[in-house]
Design brief:
mainly alpha
Length: 129
Amino acid sequence: MLKINQLIMEDNKIEKHQQPAESYIKEIKRKTRSRFLAEEKVRIVMMGIRGEGKVSEICHQFGIVESLYYKWSKDFMEAGKRRLAGDLMREANTTEVKQLRQHLDEYKHMVGEQAHEIRMLKKSLNGNI
């Protein structure tokens, strides 16, 4: 309810005659669209798989359309199939990426130092011969 009141207040700032009705409705739908975390999607799909209610009832309960439920269900099943088939690749999280970049920078620094030492040794060998 708070979101709707905020939208009404925002819309009072903008003259309603500036936008056609269709774009006005699309804007409201966009601003009030729900975002679900992965854990929530899994929980919703599992409710349907366990038969805790009809899919239509579950969808109505969470305010989603059935086609979205079936998309999540398909994605869930495909991910499970890949995992069981031995595809253990996954996306790295932000912390892992930062750590890997730090290690890479350290290795680059070490390689640079070694390359410098090799050049200096070659120069000293050429100068002494």
